[in-house]
Every structure is written in structure tokens, then in C-alpha cells.
Amino acid sequence: MFHFSSLSALCLVATLVAAGPCDIYASGGTPCVAAHSTTRALFSAYSGSLYQIKRGSDGATTNISPLGAGGVANAATQDSFCDGTTCVITTIFDQTGRSNHLTQAPPGGAASGTDPNGFDNLAAADGAPVTLNGNKAYGVFIPPGTGYRNDATNGIAVGDAAEGMYAVFDGTHYNGNCCFDYGNAEPSVRDTGNGHMEAIYFGTGGPGGAGSGPWAGADLENGLFNGGNTAANPNSPSLTSRFVTAVVKGEPGTWAIRGGNAASGSLSTFFSGARPSGGYNPMHKEGALILGIGGDNSDRAQGTFYEGVMTSGYPSDATENSVQANIVAAGYAATALTSGPAIAVGSAVSFRATTACCATRYIAHTGATVSTQLVTPSSTQALKLSASWNVVTGLGNNACVSFESRDTPGSYIRHSNFQLFVNANDGSKLFSEDATWCPQAGLSGQGNSIRSWSYPAHYFRHFNGILYAASNGGPDSFDATWVFNDDVTWVVGPAFA
Ligand code: AHR
Ligand code: AHR
After folding, report:
1. Atom 9 in ligand 1: which residue has the minimum CA distance?
2. At a CB cut-off of 8 Å and minimum separation 6, what does 387 contact?
3. What is the per-residue pLDDT for 112?
4. Residue 149 contacts residue 105 (beta carbons within 8 Å)
5. CA 164 to CA 271: how far, in whole Å?
6. pLDDT-derived band of residue 111, with 50, 70 and 90 as boundaries?
7. From the alpha carbon of 418, which atom of ligand 2 is closest?
């Protein structure tokens, strides 16, 4: 028979073993009031939907759930639902039961996305594949112009009330624009003044810290902070690991920024102290939730989100340290960004179109313009060379590739305003990312579809003979859904010259 104390000890052990981040926050007296993740359940008992996807072929939606209670997302459901078409993430569900779901962000006071209605774009569902202890899952890859929001929340801190938050990001995906945020913002989607936001900001847009970034910081509205004021904070290290944990918390008078490597080790405190002067004390939090954008929908930033929560109350460092241990134990790891027939670095290739109109045409360039041309064995050497490309390690991500022109060494296929160009590498971060492509299995069932690393909803497409980085059903004429799969499917063969 069980002795009572050994039974409760057993239960305690089981609770500790199985606890998710939100179980840990609850034990610390600072419960989650929003919990978002496309990769895993954040409560040990959660088995509901993690996120919803919508596919391009017929507009149907489906929800992705964990493999089991407390488990990793069932990525196989997504893979089969999206097979042979494109998918976007429409909703990231709140796991707390408060319905603080994140959906497509509406237009606001600042720049909005390219959607005709001014809404931000939705993230491609397969832009951020990872594994968690070996199980495949997908994060939320957010290019500029993409964002999620909830302007009618339940239980999120307002005014000067205490709250905490953490998020797991990709330390290799960021920029210096406003604002790759996760956290508390204005339901009006307007900048309503200093102290009206309290969100994690990740990137190089703030005052910064040690090294060249990116840094974990905070967006408190009209101000990105890496410490207690608008100066650089030497105690804030560059967070360049593939997976990053970032933490922000605030209570009346004080706040803190913490962070670390989400795949190993512990959290460090980069700042803890007084609120900044100039309207940030007391705070005027308004309780909306944002992901990937600023409070006023400033949407020129980029980053990748895997999981994050908002709490009620100011979590202790010890509670957050336990959450970090849980994140590390989740076993985030990188996985292949490419699929389909291999396009080997070091080879030289040609790209043959597959649409019925055009199956003897190849990707070629005339100066900077990229188009399809009829190329045959009897074509001139000059035309053959213009249709031949060196495959090199991706300039912006070494898990993908870049295509260098064989007749113009040092020039690469890049997108700009979603048209393809052959341009000289100017050495900038933007160029390297615009010129990085992650080949996939061809969407029409043969060959490859050549997906942009920086905008994973966008693929090499020929449209009226010109090459674009097109998204299925997107806002531009070249995004038309008609023959999209054929137009983005290429047979990649040996170079002509
Ligand atoms: O605080 C930085 C940004 O400033 C906010 O995200 C935005 O609302 C404003 O443009
Ligand atoms: O092609 C989309 C974007 O347009 C590119 O990233 C940038 O170079 C240009 O603004």
C-alpha cells in the first residue's frame, strides 16, 4: 500500500518531469495569460490546437496540434495538407484558454504590408523548419511586411501592472528595422506615446550592446531599449546562437531584460533596474499583443518566432531560469532548409521552365534583367553563358544556395521589389539575403521550386517571360494563382556553358 507522503512525492516528481513553461510560471505565482507556439505545447496538459494553416490550392484550413499532451507539434499533418501547394499560418492559438490568439495584423499608424486591404502578410507555414528532440516542427518565419496581432485580449497587463514575457527566436534572422517585437502594445494600432508598449524587441535597431548584435531588448514605445536608458548597454551581449531566449519583465518602478542560448546553458541578466525617464514611469500599458511588428504596425523588421508567453505578475529570476531549463530540454536544433533533387554547391546549372507554354525556355539574363530565353545546343556561346549559373553557398544562409552568373562573376540572382535581377554583390546584409535561395521539391511534382530564404512564401516564377519572386495569390500581378505551380517549377540541369 502507498504511504501518503511517498505518493505526494511521486506526484511532485511527475509534475516536475512533465512541467511545461506555463506550469513553471504558474508554480512561481506568475501564470501565463497568453502562450503561443507553433512548435510545442507550453503546458504539460495542453493537447489543443497550436496553430492554423491555410493552403493555396483551395483555401482550405486545418489546425495543427501536438503529437500528444504537452508534446511537439504534429508537423506531418502540415506536410501532407500542404503537399503540392503553398500554406500560410493564419492563427497562432493561445494555449491558456483566454483566447488571446494571434491573427493577421491589421493596418495601423505606420507602414502596412502589401495586402490590398492594408493587413500585414501571413507567414509561410514551412519557412522555419526545426527539430525538437528529433521531432520536426515549424516556427514562424517573419519577413518584412508580415505580422500578427490581437487587439481584444483577456488578462494581459494594462497600466503599470506587472508582467513578464519570454520568446524563443532564431539568432541568425534579424535586421535593424522597426520592429521585430513580441509583447504588449496598443489596441488602436497607433503610437499613443511613451510607455504604452512593453514588448521584447530582437534585432540591431535599438541602442545595442557589446559586439555587433543582434541584441535582446525591449520596445517601450517611441523607444527601443537594451538597458535602462537610450544608451548602448555593454552588459547586453550579441546573441548569435541559432536559438535565442529573450526575456523582458516589468513592475512598478523597475524592469529587466534577460536572455541566453535557447539550446544550452542558462539565462543572464543584461539589465535590471529603474524605469527609463521621459514618460516610462509609470507605464501606460494597453494590453494588445503583437508579433513581428511595432505598436503602430511598423513592419519593416524580420525575425523568427518559435514560442513565447505573457505572464500576469513579475516572474522571479528563479522561475525564468526553470523555464530556460525547460526550453533547453525541448531540444531545439536546426534541420535542412532544402528539399527535392539536390542542387550541389560547386556545380553549374541551368533552369528549364516547365509550364506548357514554355518548356524549352531557360532562365537567362540580359544585363540586370532576368527572363526566360529559348536556348538550344546551337545557341551562341554568349546566350548559353547567360543561361548558366554557378551554385555557391548561400550568401545569407549557408544551409541554402546562391546563383552566380557564369558570364558575370561576382553577380548573383537576387530579388528586389520581388522582381529577379542579376546584380553585383555589394556586400550588404540585404543583398546577401536577397540572393539566398532554398530549393524545394517542385510544387508541380517534378524538379525544384526555388524558394527565397528571406521571403519563404516567394519562389522563382516566370510571368510574361520575366522572372519574379512570386507568392501564390499575393498582391502583385505576377502572384496570380493561375498556373502558379507550373510557373514556379523548374528542371535544374547541367549548365550550358
Ligand atoms: O518604439 C519603437 C516604435 O516606435 C514602436 O514599435 C512604434 O509604435 C513606434 O513607431
Ligand atoms: O524583393 C523584396 C525586397 O525588395 C528586397 O528584400 C529588397 O531588396 C527590396 O526592397
Report:
1. 222
2. 350, 362, 363, 364, 373, 375, 495, 496
3. 56
4. yes
5. 14
6. low
7. 1
